[in-house]
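Appendix B. Chain record.
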Amino acid sequence: MKLNNQNIFTKTDQKILWDDQLKGFGVRIYESGKRSFIIQIRDKSKKQFKRTIGNINLVSLKQARDKAKRILSLIHLGNDPFAKDKDIYFKNFINEYIEKVSSRTKSIKSQLNEKSLYKVYLIPYFGHLKISQINKNKIRKLIFDMESKPVMANKAHNLLSHMFNIAIEWDLVKENPLKGIKKYPEEKRNVFLNFEQIEQLIKVLNKDCSLSSMAIKMMILTGARRSEVLNSTFDQFDLINHYWNRPYNSTKQRKTHTVPISDKVIEIVTNLRKQQSGEYLFANFKGQPMQDIKKKWQKIRLEINMPHLRLHDLRHSFASFMANKGIPIRLISELLGHSNIQTTLRYAHVFDKSLKKAVNLI
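Structure tokens predicted for this chain:
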């Protein structure tokens, strides 16, 4: 079919809508719903050319078709229209990285965190530079300027390091300028609520039936990450066999994760099913998953007189409670979805207490 301003937005199961009038020109449809104009074709020597022209909401069909014609004509003449494009501007590389890497391999939470880093730090510092112009000295200046925010600086370091590794794979640069640049030391902060504190917290949460409160309660009862809870859908829950099947694209380790759930979690899911008409347990008024629950959490932690308690500490507390009950570390690791059991060993001090109690029974 010939692409027009109506059918490029048509709902379809196809991954690419090809234009019959201009071979090699089409619209790619991503799992996220995003659509972009693309060029994908082989020349006479079978060399493949792929290029994203732009998002269909930002580039008009006419603009995209005209650019595609210019590029495709050069390919048909035996030229490489992208030969001079390898030294691209960093801001353009960010767009390529988001489209080809982040959107396909990273969780929604990670993508949102990265978006903030792009906007506040990476684009202001490097957006005007060609990727080859970003050297160690420029990276060091960024990291030094972020000295007051060491955790954020380390996240920027990790992101940039991965981006330049991808740039090496794409033959855009020869080496990673992050190599040899040290990150800031971070103080490990693990907070574990005891049973009485968990009871107090649940008592406060039970005072209201807001979605935010139920989401927090579900985090306590499952040890799941905030993003896993907020993005959960009803079809993930097997209420008969008491299982929660978390799809690979919602977990940090990017693997399907199936865990048993308690009667209390079943009760929460059942009650939410009566309230919600859409697919998400914790949907906003638009029917999309809630993005955050910070306001409710700020109010609750002040009410229980623990103003510095983080939502992620609930996950630590879940593991600590399991360890106190003598649950083997391997099982706790599976419940939490840790890809490496070493991550679970942060709770080793809790196991030590359980072991000491056990030997005294003899």
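Further analysis of this model is presented in Appendix C.
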